[in-house]
Design a protein that fits this description.
The complex is a heterodimer of chains A (271) and B (300). Chain A is mainly β and 271 residues long. Chain A has a domain of 161 residues. Chain A contains four helices and 17 strands. In chain A, strand 3 and strand 4 form a beta hairpin. Chain B has two domains: 150 residues, Alpha-Beta Plaits (2-Layer Sandwich), CATH 3.30.70.520; 142 residues, Alpha-Beta Plaits (2-Layer Sandwich). In chain B, 46% of the residues are buried. In chain B, helix 1 crosses helix 3 and helix 4 packs across helix 5. Chain B has 300 residues and is of the alpha+beta class. In chain B, strands 1, 2, 3, 4, 5, 6, 8, 9, 10, 12, 13, 16, 17 and 18 form a 14-stranded mixed β-sheet that branches. A two-stranded antiparallel sheet of chain B has the order 7-11. Chain B has six helices and 18 strands. Classes of the chains: A mainly beta (271), B alpha+beta (300). Chains A and B meet through helix 4 of A and strand 8 and strand 10 of B.
Chain lengths: 271, 300
């Protein structure tokens, strides 16, 4: 069996909703049946065959070639299998996914891993705003799984995040961890302004102190050796990520906040 | 059967099903992990009055523990999962949570994913400041305490186990019986998945079922008491002056088989010239439990 491959025929002017093309929705379908699947491009109904040149038959391993940032909802609701994307990905990559792995060799648009429940998204590039966040008006962002970003993220990373891990090897944008309910965001590079804004619980683990300092909404709890960090780094070591190469540390400066709210979140800065 | 001049009785030890779990206690150094583990497994020689049977299984290198610190593996057994859960929780709360620098982890996967709480309810000690962390699919609790944070896994697995494996060492004198027991325990400690829950692994007060007193359901095993040789239906020959028992709990019958084999072997190695005369075992006519450990089969 060869990977089921969707090769974008030409760069679309309008956004394409690719949510019907997740592996679990394609099981048992022939290439012809898949090509006949209705998609929406902008406001126009199209078929998958009009957008993609389709080949292969292994719906557990899907490949998008010539992908562009106009392709939204790739991996929507996937529960297992693997998706590899060559090129950029649009908004809502891996939305609602509960298992499996998405590997993006390019940059992703907004809402990557939106409300995901499990599985892993690895972005070999940058991610847009609202990584692992909740949709506007919804209260829970990602509730499980891992998102690894080798580059940088936009604003509001982990907004309303409830569980799971977001690992950023580059820099995180403004409002990282905003309104976070729980979970872990780790950043190897720098962070933007308003770190942990309105954060309720959860952990922001920083490999380096923020250039602009810690917000006044976080109180310094002192320097500590925390026993859970070796376990976290042992978990990082299993990942295909720059985090696996970070020498483990358990000595951190702990800041608790956002004290404008319940103040149960924490920022841990490597010492 | 005779090994090195020591007679192996044609009898069997009788054991019963239990539920068990393994926990791992780590600390800044082995001494403090051991302090905590000794408290955790204290007063846990017999389910008859202690509610559980527990002991230290072995010490662990930093490379073997979840948090990379020195640790101690403890096995704890009870008659059912509910009783086990109560004992684990109480002991963890009073003996591990309280112990400086300690952390507590599950050391075993439950059968069919069956778990009992480990730190699940201890977290409330954190008075709202406790923090949950999901790492590698497991939930941990970080409970703020005066020396920093107490880290504990939320649950530990429950498995079916076997309790009450045993053998008796019959010797010409008390020091000789004890020396044989010490040699046996030293060898048995190297066997994984078993514990010998009595003090130093040895029991000198083996019991029989029933008593002349209605309130008691167990009493001294008079048939093996050397001072009663002329007063009761004794199992002892004139030259036997002391009997000691080693009780074994294990995660499986095979584990107890192996522990009994190495223990009896070590006791017999001292031989008749050191006053070791017989190896026997305690059973209740096959009515107590489904697990029978036939001494001569084990030593064959």
């Amino acid at each position: 069996m060869s990977a089921l491959t969707f090769k974008l025929i030409f760069e679309r002017a309008q956004r394409v909703d690719c949510s019907p093309l997740s592996g679990n929705k394609l099981e048992g379908k022939t290439v012809a049946e898949i090509a006949a699947l209705p998609l929406v491009a902008g406001r126009q109904p199209v078929t998958a065959g009009e957008v993609f040149e389709i080949s292969g038959d292994d719906c557990r391993h899907i490949v998008f070639e010539n992908s562009s940032d106009k392709l939204d909802f790739i991996g929507h609701g996937m529960s297992d299998g693997e998706i590899t994307i060559h090129g950029a990905a649009g908004a809502y990559l891996g939305q609602f996914m509960s298992g499996g792995q998405i590997t993006l060799n390019g940059n992703s648009d907004i809402y990557t891993g939106c409300e995901m429940k499990g599985g892993q998204i690895k972005i070999n590039g940058n991610a847009g705003d609202f990584v692992g966040a909740a949709r506007p008006g919804y209260k829970n962002g990602m509730t499980g799984g891992t998102i690894i970003i080798t580059g940088n993220t936009g604003a509001r990373t982990g907004d309303h995040m409830r569980r799971g891990m977001i690992l950023i090897e580059g820099d995180a944008g403004d409002y990282c961890g905003s309104r976070m309910v729980s979970g872990t965001i780790a950043v190897l590079g720098g962070v933007g302004r308003h770190l942990g804004y309105a954060m309720k619980r959860g952990t922001l683990l920083l490999n380096q102190a923020p250039a602009q300092g810690i917000s006044a909404n976080f109180n310094d709890c002192g320097s500590h050796t925390l026993a859970f960090l070796p376990l976290l780094f042992a978990e990082f070591a299993k990942l295909d990520s720059g985090f696996a190469k970070v020498s483990p540390f358990s000595r951190v400066q702990r800041y608790a906040g956002d004290i404008g709210g319940i103040g149960m979140g924490e920022i841990l800065v490597r010492l | 059967m005779i090994i090195n001049g020591v007679s192996i009785d044609p009898t069997f030890a009788e054991a019963f099903p239990m539920k068990g779990t393994r926990v791992i206690i780590t600390a800044q150094n082995l001494q403090w992990a051991m302090n905590s583990a000794q408290a955790f497994t204290g007063f846990a020689t017999s389910v008859i009055a202690c509610g559980c049977e527990a002991a230290i299984e072995r010490t662990l290198d930093p490379s073997e523990t979840p948090d990379g610190r020195p640790g101690v593996a403890c096995l704890i057994f009870a008659m059912g999962a509910k009783g086990l859960a109560k004992q684990v929780e109480t002991r963890a709360g009073q003996c591990v949570l309280t112990s400086p620098t300690s952390a507590l982890f599950s050391g075993i996967q439950g059968e069919d994913g069956k778990d009992i709480p480990l730190g699940k309810n201890l977290r409330f000690f954190g008075d709202g400041f406790q923090i949950s962390k999901m790492i590698g699919g497991k939930r941990y609790w970080r409970i703020p305490v005066m020396d920093g944070e107490f880290l504990t896994e939320e649950n530990t697995g429950v498995v079916s186990a076997v309790g009450g494996g045993n053998f008796l060492i019959l010797a010409e004198s008390q020091p000789q019986a004890l020396a044989a027991c010490e040699a046996a325990i030293e060898a048995m400690k190297k066997v994984p998945n078993v514990i010998m829950p009595f003090p130093g692994g040895v029991v000198r007060s083996g019991s029989k079922v029933g008593s002349k007193y209605k309130a008691l359901n167990a009493s001294t095993n008079d048939a093996f008491c050397p001072t009663l040789k002329g007063q009761t239906r004794s199992e002892l020959s004139p030259e036997v002056e002391s009997v000691m028992e080693i009780v074994i709990d294990g995660l499986s019958k095979q584990d107890i088989d192996e522990a009994m084999r190495v223990g009896i072997e070590a006791a017999c190695a001292l031989g008749a010239e050191n006053g070791i005369r017989r190896i026997s075992a305690g059973n209740y006519g096959g009515k107590l439990g489904p697990f029978h450990f036939h001494l001569q089969e084990i030593m064959a």
